[in-house]
């Protein structure tokens, strides 16, 4: 009986049910951790997936997209090839979208919008908005992360596009690209290609079956290291007022804007914003002031594209401070122009 009691006591002790002097026996039952709630994945790839809103079936594509050449064993082990592929996918998706969305736009107009939208600056901005720049795996020689060149962030965005294409296909990549770029496309189209007035004037004249504009340097002032230029536009035998600029590019842009304003193809709002209206195919240029065709309307005020009296200070009457170097530009053209 004692032997059976001893066995029974052992069973109780192992189960944690027996007591000694009224105190619970120590619980030596093996414990198994619950697996119903796995720990959150905080890997670089998981963080990147949450940022871009896409879960990869094969994370190796995403991992490669985040490896910069500065830390890769060889350049083939970096994101450079994915950047090459992603750049092509990005361009194709944007061109297809522009072609279908703007059926009346000329090739030059579509090219300008596309150049602005897929510029390195634009891609870098999107990458930073998503936080992809923080997930790039870099070599020690790249310096502080906050001082990285924009080209690295742009490359990360294009590499991720390439990775999404390989993992999920073209339609998934298209959805990702347009999700982040369609607003920029609309803005670029609405603002006349970021106010590249030379391009707008050339396309305007093409639609009006006219020759390309010519830019003529009327005068130069100031020392060689900080010259000012007085430039005018000539088109179809008509010379428009000249404009001053601290560089030839600035003066040409201002001269193109002056021509657009005089032709009524652009207008200026009270807060200084330039509005460029769409030119219909086959539309003719208005007659030059002083011509027989313009004589009948000589007493009428000049109207802008919205039918209101155009009021702006003529750019050709303002001359910059020649002799003083300046980095200010009338417009900031896209990286690809």
Q: What is the strand and helix layout of this fold?
A:
Layout: H1 2-15, E1 19-20, E2 23-24, H2 44-52, H3 59-65, H4 80-101, H5 107-117, H6 120-130, H7 150-168, H8 170-190, H9 192-195, H10 197-207, E3 214-221, E4 228-235, E5 238-239, E6 243-245, H11 248-263, E7 266-268, E8 274-276, H12 292-295
Antiparallel strand pairs: 1-2, 3-4, 4-5, 4-6, 7-8
Describe the structure.
This protein has 337 residues and is α+β, with helices and mostly antiparallel strands. The protein folds into 2 domains: 44-190, Orthogonal Bundle (Ribonuclease iii, N-terminal Endonuclease Domain, Chain A); 195-317, Double Stranded RNA Binding Domain (2-Layer Sandwich). The protein has 12 helices and 8 strands. The protein has helices at 2-15, 44-52, 59-65, 80-101, 107-117, 120-130, 150-168, 170-190, 192-195, 197-207, 248-263, 292-295, and strands spanning 19-20, 23-24, 214-221, 228-235, 238-239, 243-245, 266-268, 274-276. The strands form 3 sheets. Strands 3, 4, 5 and 6 form a 4-stranded antiparallel sheet that branches. It is elongated, with a radius of gyration of 33 Å. It starts with a helix and ends in a 42-residue tail after the last helix. The model is unreliable at 1-23, 25-38, 292-317 and 325-337 (pLDDT under 50).
């Amino acid at each position: 009986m004692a032997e059976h009691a001893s066995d029974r006591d052992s069973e109780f002790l192992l189960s944690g049910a027996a007591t000694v002097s009224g105190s619970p026996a120590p619980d030596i039952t093996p414990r198994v951790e619950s697996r119903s709630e796995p720990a959150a994945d905080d890997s670089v790839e998981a963080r990147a997936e949450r940022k871009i809103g896409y879960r990869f079936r094969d994370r190796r594509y995403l991992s490669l997209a985040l490896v910069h050449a500065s830390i890769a064993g060889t350049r083939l082990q970096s994101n450079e090839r994915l950047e090459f592929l992603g750049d092509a996918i990005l361009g194709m998706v944007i061109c297809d979208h522009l072609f279908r969305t703007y059926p009346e736009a000329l090739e030059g107009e579509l090219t300008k919008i596309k150049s602005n939208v897929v510029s390195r600056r634009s891609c870098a901005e999107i990458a930073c908005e998503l936080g992809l720049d923080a997930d790039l795996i870099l070599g020690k020689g790249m310096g502080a992360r906050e001082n990285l060149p924009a080209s690295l962030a742009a490359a990360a965005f294009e590499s991720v596009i390439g990775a999404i294409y390989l993992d999920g296909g073209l339609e998934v990549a298209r959805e990702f690209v347009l999700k982040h770029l369609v607003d920029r496309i609309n803005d670029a189209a609405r603002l006349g290609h970021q106010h590249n007035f030379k391009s707008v004037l050339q396309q305007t004249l093409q639609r009006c079956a006219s020759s390309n504009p010519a830019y003529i340097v009327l005068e130069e002032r100031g020392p060689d290291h900080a010259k000012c230029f007085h430039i005018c536009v000539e088109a179809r035998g008509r010379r428009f007022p000249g404009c001053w600029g601290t560089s030839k590019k600035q003066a040409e842009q201002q001269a193109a804007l002056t021509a657009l304003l005089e032709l009524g193809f652009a207008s200026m709002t009270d807060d200084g914003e330039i509005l460029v209206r769409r030119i219909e195919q086959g539309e003719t240029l208005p007659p030059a002031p002083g011509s027989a065709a313009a004589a009948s309307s000589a007493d009428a005020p000049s109207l802008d594209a919205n039918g209101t009296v155009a009021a702006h200070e003529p750019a050709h009457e303002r001359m910059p401070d020649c002799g003083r170097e300046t980095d200010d530009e009338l417009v900031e053209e896209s990286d690809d122009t």
